[in-house]
Design a protein that fits this description.
Helix content is 41%, strand content 17%. The protein is α/β, with parallel strands linked by helices. The longest helix is centred in the first third of the chain and has 18 residues. A hairpin with a 6-residue loop joins strand 6 and strand 7. Strands 1-9-10-8-5-2-3-4 form an 8-stranded mixed beta sheet, with helices on both faces. The chain has a two-stranded antiparallel sheet with strand order 6-7.
Length: 246
């Protein structure tokens, strides 16, 4: 019998989602975020880059502002009002103290109980059909896991305290979307239609990515993923997460 995924915790009020690029959250967990914001919870997005290296047909100077605008519109569809960019360079994000410090600063600013990120492992999936994950996803996901602890330690990055960002040790969980080792899931049904619309806001990026009709592409991708998780979540379409407690 397939092991069932546990429901995501709901006893929280603020979440911070930290990923590498515009569209990462829309491909991963926007359906869950829509449902959470509907329930009165606050979710903030922080993007390490502006996705400026993401479109072969558009040079970075023009691509970055376009993808930033698409991301802000996309976030609004699922009830996210605050979107920040850390301005690391797309495609060559480096894991290390600078990235950890920037993410720890964001955690201190927004003081979340739940932090969300994207798959930090080497591959998407496992076994013979696995695909290699990008260095940006690996670096940011790993840095998020570390920064959740850094944010609560006043002796790590003391310059943040000097800037008025007091330590925040209130992160209770880090949830990793797109993991090949999920432990929990959130019902995707209530937010699924808005997650499709949210991904569709990245229209320029999607049109550069595929010849398939954008709405067909978005709907098939997101509903397919949600249905794939349903087998392990009582038959309900869902978004899966690997949940780390702190």
């Amino acid at each position: 019998m397939t092991e069932q995924l546990k429901p995501m915790p709901t006893d929280w009020t603020r979440a911070l989602a930290v990923v590498a690029h515009p569209d990462d959250l829309e491909y991963g967990c926007a359906a869950a975020i829509a449902d959470w914001t509907d329930g009165g919870r606050e979710v903030v997005y922080v993007l390490a880059t502006r996705g400026e290296a993401g479109m072969d047909t558009l040079e970075p100077a023009a691509c970055g502002p376009l993808r930033e605008a698409e991301q802000r519109a996309s976030a609004a569809v699922v009830g996210v009002r605050t979107v920040e960019f850390l301005d690391h360079r797309d495609g060559v994000i480096e894991y290390g103290p600078d990235l950890r410090r920037d993410i720890a600063a964001a955690i201190r600013r927004h003081r979340p109980e739940l932090v969300i990120t994207l798959n930090h492992r080497d591959t998407w999936g496992s076994g013979p059909g696995a695909f290699w994950n990008t260095p940006d996803h690996q670096a940011v996901g790993r840095a998020v896991l570390d920064a959740a602890g850094d944010a609560g330690n006043r002796w790590i990055f003391p310059e943040l305290t000097e800037q008025g960002l007091e330590p925040w040790g209130g992160v209770r969980w880090v949830a990793v979307a797109g993991s090949s080792s999920p432990t929990h899931a959130a019902d995707a049904g209530p937010g699924l239609e808005r997650s499709v619309r949210s991904l569709l806001e990245h229209r320029a990026y999607i049109e550069a990515l595929t010849d398939e009709h954008p709405e067909t592409y978005c709907r098939n991708f997101l509903t397919g993923n949600a249905q794939a998780v349903a087998e392990r979540f009582g038959g309900r379409p869902a978004v899966s997460f690997e949940l780390f407690g702190r």
